[in-house]
Write a sequence for this structure.
């Protein structure tokens, strides 16, 4: 299994979620994040930084787990929706997940689809 963490512009969130769900993604977690240190030089005033962060750095993190064979499919879906070709499009991180435990059923497995139903 793989865990996908994608940091994307909030402006493309709805389109990205819709596309992932249409392609079978389940259990997506959405978190609003506040990036620090992206392009702010010391010559900016506090009010300018607030305006810049609202305009350019409104970022949302998507988290999801999928079986290995779906990884490229979901990563490419995020890329298609989130790519504008400009700085600030975000990042996608992929990590290995060894086991999933569904708490309500006390079921365990090495594949997300084994326990997600």
């Amino acid at each position: 299994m793989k865990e996908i963490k994608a940091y994307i512009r909030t402006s493309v969130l709805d389109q990205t979620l819709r596309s992932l769900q249409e392609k079978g993604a389940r259990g997506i977690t959405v978190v609003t994040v506040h990036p620090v240190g992206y392009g702010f030089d010391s010559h900016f005033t506090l009010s300018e930084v607030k305006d810049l962060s609202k305009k350019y750095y409104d970022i949302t993190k998507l988290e999801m787990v999928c079986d290995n064979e779906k990884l490229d499919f979901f990563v490419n879906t995020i890329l298609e929706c989130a790519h504008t070709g400009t700085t600030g499009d975000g990042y996608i991180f992929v990590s290995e997940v060894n086991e999933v435990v569904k708490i309500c059923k006390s079921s365990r497995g090495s594949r997300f689809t084994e326990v997600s139903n």
The chain has four helices and six strands. The beta strands are 2-9, 29-33, 59-66, 90-96, 100-102, 107-109.
